[in-house]
Amino acid sequence: MTRLYCGNLPFTVTAEDLSERFSAVGQVTNVSIASRFRKSLGFGFVEMANEDDALNAMKQLNNTEIEGRVINVELSRSTDDQRGTSSTQPTHRHRPTHQKGNKSRYPRRGVIDPNTPLSETGIHVKNLPWTITEEELRNAFPGCKVAEIVIAKTHTNRVIGYGFVYFENSEEMQKGLEIGQNLTIKDRLITCSRAFLRDAD
């Protein structure tokens, strides 16, 4: 069996939804969605019956949309990736953190109240490459006054696939959003939107 990592999933997507989509391009043997406190973390794993099916699924489904989100599909790097996940019960796996200076904090992605005010300086960037660095993300917004870069990572320092860019003021943030409407980094189509205010706390 070959395991695929699926990132930037809508929080409403279930293991059954993911299984149905991947079954259209190959034989699926298992699907799990990572969650914390009964909230999806926005990523999961799909096990395919063989390498050919996995490669075909990755080729056909990477950078496709589910409920308006551009998902990323890659080969899972380690069998440890799925430890603690389950397709039937909530888990506490991975415990991703924001790397911000010398501080770490859990991202609130997926548990934000929709009535929470939007940040005046921060944008949420999604579908980031796993090899992205803070410098590369900063350079993706040329001409903008970037105050801080936050890339969400797991406790093993693995990039999860999303992060935040904070600008010096709201005008600079608007410039960043305009750039983000047509932004590609390392052949990945990046999606950008205003961050919730709580993301910047």
TrEMBL record:
<dbReference type="InterPro" id="IPR000504">
    <property type="entry name" value="RRM_dom"/>
</dbReference>
<feature type="domain" description="RRM">
    <location>
        <begin position="121"/>
        <end position="197"/>
    </location>
</feature>
<dbReference type="InterPro" id="IPR035979">
    <property type="entry name" value="RBD_domain_sf"/>
</dbReference>
<keyword id="KW-0694">RNA-binding</keyword>
<feature type="region of interest" description="Disordered">
    <location>
        <begin position="75"/>
        <end position="118"/>
    </location>
</feature>
<dbReference type="InterPro" id="IPR050502">
    <property type="entry name" value="Euk_RNA-bind_prot"/>
</dbReference>
<feature type="domain" description="RRM">
    <location>
        <begin position="2"/>
        <end position="78"/>
    </location>
</feature>
<feature type="compositionally biased region" description="Basic residues">
    <location>
        <begin position="91"/>
        <end position="108"/>
    </location>
</feature>
<protein>
    <submittedName>
        <fullName>RNA-binding protein CP33, chloroplastic</fullName>
    </submittedName>
</protein>
<dbReference type="InterPro" id="IPR012677">
    <property type="entry name" value="Nucleotide-bd_a/b_plait_sf"/>
</dbReference>
<dbReference type="Pfam" id="PF00076">
    <property type="entry name" value="RRM_1"/>
</dbReference>
